[in-house]
């Protein structure tokens, strides 16, 4: 099965793992200790992240370290970024609407 970055970030556990590994390199066991799900479940999430190229494994003695490959997240970032202006404009418009309602309410 061919996987891509969007499959990787679709799951909240995998997003949490990405966030965790963005700050430090951890072994598979250390990653598993941070979550309240089984080690096999974490291993499956790590396997998917590896298949998507977002993490790689580095053997150090008996441990396998999980290394983030942040450049692989760029396609998702670019895709999301294109909607930033659209949503910012809509949120600003909604905020202006709420402010007008508040001003009318305050005048009463």
Provide an overview of this structure.
The chain has 108 residues and is of the alpha+beta class. It has a single domain, classed as Winged helix-like DNA-binding domain superfamily/Winged helix DNA-binding domain (Arc Repressor Mutant, subunit A), CATH 1.10.10. Helices cover 63% and strands 13% of the residues. Strands 1-3-2 form a three-stranded antiparallel sheet. Strand 2 and strand 3 form a beta hairpin.
Order of helices and strands: HHEHHEEHH
Low-confidence regions: none
Instruction: Estimate the helix proportion, in percent.
Output: 55-70%
Side by side, the strands of the main sheet go: 1-3-2
CA radius of gyration: 20 Å
The number of helical runs is 6
Number of DSSP strands? Answer: 3
Q: What is the domain total for the residues?
A: 1
Basic shape: elongated
Q: Which band does the percent of strand residues land in?
A: 5-15%
CATH class: Mainly Alpha
CATH H-tier superfamily: Winged helix-like DNA-binding domain superfamily/Winged helix DNA-binding domain
Overall average residue pLDDT: 90
The N- to C-terminal Cα distance equals 63 Å
Please tell me the CATH architecture by its name.
Orthogonal Bundle
Per CATH, what is the topology? Arc Repressor Mutant, subunit A
């Amino acid at each position: 099965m061919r996987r891509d970055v969007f499959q990787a970030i679709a799951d909240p556990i995998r997003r949490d793992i990405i966030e965790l590994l963005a700050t430090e390199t951890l072994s598979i066991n250390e990653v598993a200790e941070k979550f309240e799900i089984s080690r096999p479940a974490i291993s499956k999430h790590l396997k998917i992240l590896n298949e998507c190229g977002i993490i790689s494994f580095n053997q150090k003695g008996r441990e396998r370290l999980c290394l983030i490959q942040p450049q692989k997240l760029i396609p998702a970032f670019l895709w999301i970024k294109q909607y930033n202006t659209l949503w910012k404009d809509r949120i600003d418009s909604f905020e202006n609407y709420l402010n007008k309602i508040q001003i009318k309410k305050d005048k009463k």
